[in-house]
Amino acid sequence: MPATGSASRPLDLPEVEEDAAGDFMRTQSRVTPYLFILPALLGLIAFRIAPIGVSLVGSLTGQTLMGETRFVWLKNYLDLVANPAFWSSLGLTLIFNLLINPFQIAVALALALLVFRRTRGIDLIRTTYFLPMTVSIGVASILWNLLLDPSLGLVNGIFRKLGIPPQPFFTGASQAMPSLIWLATWKGVGYWMIFLLAGLNDIPHLLYEAAEIDGARSFARFRYITLPLMKRPIAFVLVADTVANFLFFAPVYLITRGGPMGATNLLMFTAYQSAFTYGNMGRSLAISTTILLIIAAFACVELKFFRAEEQSYG
Amino acid sequence: MASGRRRAVLVQLLRYLLMILIALLMFLPIYWLLISSVQPAKTIFKFTRDITWDTFIPRVLTWENYQYIFTPPSNFPRALFNTLFVGGTTAVFGLLINSLAGFAFAIFDFKGKSILFAVVLATFMMPFESIVIPLYVLIKGMGLFDTYQALIFPALANGLIIFLFRQFLAGIPRGLFEAALVDGASWLQVYCRIALPLAWPVIVTALLMMFNQIWESFFWPLVAAPTPEHVLIQIEIVRNINFDEAIWGRLFASSAVATLVPMVLFLSMQKYYVRSIVSSAFK
Question: Domain range for residue B213?
């Protein structure tokens, strides 16, 4: 069933039963549906939609030296545009996304293909791959920060044993970002794998059998059957993963604090710092609004994508 | 033929080797966290510098780290209570309001339904983290900064859970509901006595998801309720980060508690959870 499809088709009943459905509906009073959705709707309006308005309006305000809040209109945005630190943070966030999303999806797809066939012990192996996603992002950050510690960390301990020189990881300007990507991939890849496994499951097995009879090699089967039929789940994971990674915060806050030398100064952390370190709420909300706009753009792509899918399925 | 079979066996062998290697990579950090939490604080890092079997198979086991975090003046028990209380309250009340809305979207036909449902969908495509800072401004304006309400209220209404209930209930034959109405039941009774009992797999998943959301939350409690009185578990743990050797043990013990709870919940309900999140994506 498509995500938005049957909302407009009230009862999902076949045409012939229209009359019965009509009788059924007459027993419903006018206000009943609204009473049922009211509590949830109020919650969504107050805590999901109102904040968007707060973000828009708040980004147009600033504080005087006396601590009074007043409208400064576009000043916060103009300040951002004129600020090279903002552009480098935005650029860094884009680069981060361009690196992490293809990487996570490639790894998730490779793992899904690896564990797809239900051979002996596969449930245990799949469960192991899911486990890191149950580790909270805070604990995952602490854990990898310790494992990758330049002098005390287990990973450098193993490197030393193997004769590899110790690496700085989170403390090295060029290694901090890859280390964050590693941490996020370790935690997240099992989650994305779930969707790709489900996608693989939906591919009719007959297609592979037919291809095998035709003598298609395994790479050809992957290229001409698996990949085209996996477009939908891969696209879904790509959008969801991108939105999640635009909001990447906890590991930066806990481990690198944007450093070393601004190498991991991602947008969400900049927004946090503006508000809670520098006390500049207007500026922070201007950054928040920018992030919201970027995410809204992705959400539109996602919606469009599902609409298109829905039509193609009739 | 024989060489083909031998090749297949070899491929399978390599596949298992690779799968097990990756499984170790996934699991070893968690294992190391768990064993480190039962080691004397002083020895934890001794074995990471100098890798031996002792690194992975501890000789001395101790509960001292756990004893420490569960005795005053540690604030960990308070954080644990706060998280259980906030998570439990959110899950129960969230279940109620989201299942009601999901029921209405699945069963009723009413004016503005598709627009309202689009709003629901939009809210779960916009992740919560994207509105944390304006929400903080809002909560502060409502006078709720640093209260349980600040943690509970924003988590109650949940677009994803509404969606999951709606999907499940829309798939149930109408006849079941009609029969009850003919017998004179009200819609509220139909919801309580027929819809909810049928929807138990969604209920299980919804409770798990909403509780877990509180348990794992980091950014929101960090800004909305950071004081020791209302602190949640994830924030309490990171407050202990201080690279003073004596407290590593506590850091590991509290992290282990924070990890084991969702892990056990996930393992016991893996099947429902996996099915539900998949259906949220493409069904």
Answer: 76-282
